[in-house]
C-alpha cells in the first residue's frame, strides 16, 4: 500500500478471436435451459423426455441470439485501426 496516486497500468487488450461456432451456443443454451426446466419439472412432475425436448427447442431459439451477442461483444473489444 502506497500513497502514490499513480494508477496501475491497464492490462493488455485481449487477443482477437473468431466467435464460437453456432453448435457450441446451441449446446450451452440447451444445457442451461435444461437445468432451469428440470427444477420446475421436479416441482410440477413433468416427464424427463418432455423437459429435454423443450430445452432443445429453447436452445435452438436462443443460440442465434447468443451467437450474435458474442459477435457484437468481440467486435466491440477490437482496438480501432491505427
Describe the structure.
The structure is a single chain. With 82 residues, this protein is an all-alpha fold. It has a domain at 22-76. Helix content is 63%, strand content 0%. Helix 1 packs across helix 2 (48-76).
The percent range for strand residues is under 5%
Tell me, what's the shape? elongated
Total number of helices: 2
Rg calc: 20 Å
Key terms for this structure?
single chain; 82 residues; mainly alpha; 2 helices; 0% strand
How do the helices and strands line up, and which of them pair or pack?
Elements: H1 22-44, H2 48-76
Helix pairs in contact: 1-2
Task: Provide a compact summary of the structure.
By secondary structure, the protein is mainly alpha-helical. It has helices at 22-44, 48-76.
Amino acid at each position: 500500500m502506497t500513497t502514490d496516486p499513480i494508477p496501475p497500468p491497464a492490462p493488455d487488450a485481449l487477443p482477437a478471436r473468431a466467435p464460437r461456432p453456432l453448435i457450441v451456443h446451441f449446446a450451452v443454451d440447451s444445457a442451461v435451459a435444461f437445468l432451469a426446466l428440470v427444477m420446475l419439472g421436479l416441482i410440477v412432475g413433468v416427464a424427463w423426455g418432455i423437459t429435454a425436448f423443450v430445452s432443445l427447442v429453447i436452445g435452438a431459439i436462443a443460440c442465434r441470439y447468443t451467437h450474435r451477442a458474442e459477435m457484437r461483444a468481440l467486435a466491440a473489444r477490437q482496438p480501432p485501426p491505427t
